[in-house]
Amino acid sequence: MQITDVRVRKVAKEGKMKAVVSITIDDEFVVHDIKVIEGEKGMFIAMPSRKATDGEYRDIAHPINSATRDKIQKIILDKYEQAMAEDVEEAI
Predict the structure, then answer these.
(1) What is the model's pTM?
(2) InterPro entries under this entry (predicted)?
């Protein structure tokens, strides 16, 4: 599995959620609404989820194992940091 495209949409308002990301896998499958969140221990991603009738949130799509999750998270956070650096350069 290769992540062939990452699109970062930064969130303008203040808060813990910093961006919403879409990834393309193998130029064939897209996952939208992955959130980049700033937590107490640093940045992390939250997979797309939906609120169930019991009030709990459940992931709609997610990696099966932690190695795949780590791979996806690293690619997304690297792209997010790159987008933030580009914003700083444009502001100068």
Answers:
(1) 0.88
(2) SpoVG, SpoVG_sf
